[in-house]
Write a structure and sequence with these properties.
With 335 residues, the chain is α+β, with helices and mostly antiparallel strands. The chain folds into two domains: 125 residues, no CATH class; 163 residues, no CATH class. 44% of the residues lie in helices and 14% in strands. The protein has ten helices and eight strands. A four-stranded antiparallel sheet has the order 1-2-3-4, with helices on one face. Strands 5-6-7-8 form a four-stranded antiparallel sheet, with helices on one face. It is globular and about 65 Å long. The two termini are 30 Å apart. This is Metal-dependent hydrolase. InterPro entries: Transcription_regulator, YdjM-like.
């Protein structure tokens, strides 16, 4: 989730259990601790472009790391912020713990994947109930917390935290509606999906990307889950067959290992790019939800040495036509 949402959620929970004299400082501790787990974005390597994919949303986001992460936050923020205002270390640690604890759970509500139970498992939990950026989630949270700060009111802060629970719950209901529609579409095509998922499109819980795997291919559609359910048929692509796509690739080469790492990150939703037979895409994400224009990919080289890594690429630009197609879906217009 975006940093603003993470910080606001952390502040809302810490302020919800505070009192008027401690309200502001409790909110600051919760906000900063709510942001802290994303320090893992700094774990990068100039030699290994996929390292950050393995460590982002890993140990710092684990539920088991909350006592350690929040303790580190308290050790940093207590002497800087809270001690001079009469807080005991235990009180600072409590507010830091509440703020820190919200981060991984909110991230798990998105579709990116969060290792909530690391080191017990490296499974990436993705509940697919909210987009990584959603103004309808963040703006009410911001407005209500601003009012709570003005009034120094823990009760109003609880309203903000309640909204942070209600909105992802609405997202889950919307996700289930979209998934049921996706299964109906697959049945109408006489497909028997191995798996089917609905993921929120950018910035909303109204339009959903539907991906299902059947007969070695990924089928991609969009569903607008308004009062009426509208299907926007999309495209399909063959699931990556590594041996077929790269017969020249050595099994023990670094590029082969990197394909495995990228596939793990992408939950095995990987395919060969239609633009390049040397590029592997993550089919889960695109600006227009029923299209295949991936937001990131890896590129291989047949001439690479056995110890050479793949190249990681991002593709986040969008054309005016792409944005217009997305807006048409969002507002229920014909394509």
């Amino acid at each position: 989730m975006d940093p603003l949402s993470q910080g606001l959620l952390g502040a809302s929970l810490s302020q919800s259990v505070s009192n008027r004299p401690r309200f502001v400082v409790a909110g600051v501790l919760g906000l900063l601790s709510g942001l802290a787990p994303d320090i893992d974005v700094l774990i990068r390597s100039s030699h290994d472009p996929l390292l950050f994919l393995e460590f982002h949303r890993q140990f710092t986001h684990s539920l088991l790391f909350i006592p350690i992460g929040s303790l580190i936050c308290a050790m940093l923020f207590h002497p800087l912020i809270a001690k001079k205002r009469g807080f005991s270390f235990k009180q600072s640690w409590l507010y830091c713990t509440l703020g820190y604890a919200t981060h991984g759970l909110l991230d798990a509500c998105t579709s990116y994947g969060t290792q909530l139970l690391w080191p017990l498992t490296n499974e990436r939990f993705a509940w697919n109930s909210i987009s990584v950026i959603d103004p309808l989630f963040t703006l009410p949270l911001l407005i209500v917390l601003a009012i709570a700060l003005w009034k120094r009111s823990p009760a109003i802060a609880r309203v903000a935290f309640l909204w942070a629970l209600i909105y992802p719950t609405l997202g889950m209901l919307q996700r289930d509606r979209a998934e049921r529609t996706g299964w109906q579409v697959a049945n109408e095509r006489n497909h028997s999906p191995v798996r089917l998922e609905a993921k929120p499109s950018f910035g909303n819980i109204l339009v959903w990307k539907i991906i299902y795997e059947a007969d070695g291919r990924f089928y991609i559609d969009a569903v607008r889950a308004g009062q009426k359910l509208t299907v926007y048929p999309g495209t399909n692509v063959e699931k990556l067959n590594e041996e077929k796509a790269f017969p020249w690739l050595h099994e023990n080469s670094q590029q082969a290992k990197d394909i495995g790492r990228f596939s793990w990150f992408s939950d095995d939703f990987v395919a060969l790019s239609e633009q390049s037979n040397q590029r592997i895409i993550d089919v889960r994400y695109s600006i227009v939800p029923n299209e295949l224009n991936a937001l990131w990919s890896i590129s291989l080289s047949e001439n690479a040495a056995d110890n050479e890594h793949v190249t990681y690429l991002t593709h986040r630009s969008s054309s005016e036509k792409d944005r217009q197609r997305f807006y048409n879906m969002l507002f229920g217009r014909s394509q």
